Amino acid sequence: MIPDFPKFSKFTMDLRPELHPLFKSLKEGISEFTFANLYLFRDTHNYQITRLPGNLLSITGRDNEKSFFMLPFGFPEKSVLDQLFNQFNSMKCVSESQAAMLTDMGYLTTEDRDNFDYLYLREELVILPGTKFHKKRTFINAFMESYSYEGKPLRKEYISDAIRVLEEWRQEREGLGDYAAAREALEKVDELQLCGGIYYVNGRPSAYTLEEEIALGETFVIHFEKAVGDYKGLYQFINQSFASILPEKYKTINREQDLGEEGLRQAKITYRPVGFVKKYRACMKR
């Protein structure tokens, strides 16, 4: 049960029947605003939830000791909004339309570039047309010529193989990164209604992806993509392979944010995003 503001409760699985349909109805396509994403990263960001007057919901959390709140389903009356801004350092994941309204209401809004979601045309990721994708096609062709490979839907019988990929991925890195969330996503893939694919290279499980539908069914967001082994072109191959099996009704693929990591930003830009899901931060003017 979600308590009334100013009380808060933890983000738990039993909230899914109420929250999942609400998130599915959002059109902006902000990658954070799915039940699965919020649930899986509930400990990373210390997510909590409260019910505001008017039956609106607010999700709160902390990043680097700075508190924030989010309002995915709309604004409460101004007095309640002021309470939230006074209690928390900022409002996070503010959509473009919300940013305009908050500016008109006298709040300070700024672009949160590190958290922009990258949007790609599904058809372009399949075809990789023209000279701008020449290097991607070269990597994919080299991979297909060099290795024996197979892709399968990530059904229950292959989860243990995906976990094997994830564990090997963890061993290759110094920090944990998003390991905990990625592991739980695999363990609860059915409960969270995530889908994905697993890829075998020379008979060995070597990569997997996990995704879900957002933006009123126009976009697929990739929450997790892991690969191991020194297979040149593997990432490029699975990127194209996943896009090619998506139904044509999905116009775009959301590959989430770069979090300000320069290497990741450059990698995402090389795939020529068609645009971004822009996000803003908002706070009180001091």
Overview of the structural elements:
The chain has 286 residues and is of the alpha+beta class. It has 2 domains: 9-116, Aminopeptidase (3-Layer(aba) Sandwich), CATH 3.40.630.30; 117-256, Aminopeptidase (3-Layer(aba) Sandwich), CATH 3.40.630. It has 10 helices and 14 strands. Strands 1-2-3-4-5-14-6 form a 7-stranded mixed beta sheet. Helix 7 packs antiparallel against helix 8 (179-187).
What is the rounded distance between the termini? Answer: 36 Å
Number of domains in the coordinates?
Answer: 2
Strand content: 25-35%
What is the fold-level CATH name, i.e. the topology of the largest domain?
Aminopeptidase
Across the major sheet, the strand order is 1-2-3-4-5-14-6
Full CATH superfamily name of the largest domain: Gcn5-related N-acetyltransferase (GNAT)
Instruction: Give the biggest beta sheet.
Output: 7 strands, mixed
Helix content: 25-40%
Overall pLDDT confidence = 96
**What class do helices, strands and sheet pairing give?**
alpha+beta
TL;DR?
The protein has ten helices and 14 strands.
SSE layout and pairings?
Layout: E1 9-10, H1 16-24, H2 35-40, E2 48-52, E3 56-63, E4 66-70, H3 78-87, E5 90-94, H4 96-104, E6 108-111, E7 117-121, H5 122-127, H6 134-146, E8 149-153, H7 159-171, H8 179-187, E9 195-201, E10 204-214, E11 219-227, H9 234-245, E12 252-254, H10 262-269, E13 275-277, E14 280-283
Parallel strand pairs: 4-5, 11-12
Antiparallel strand pairs: 1-2, 2-3, 3-4, 5-14, 6-14, 7-12, 7-13, 8-9, 9-10, 10-11
Helix pairs in contact: 7-8
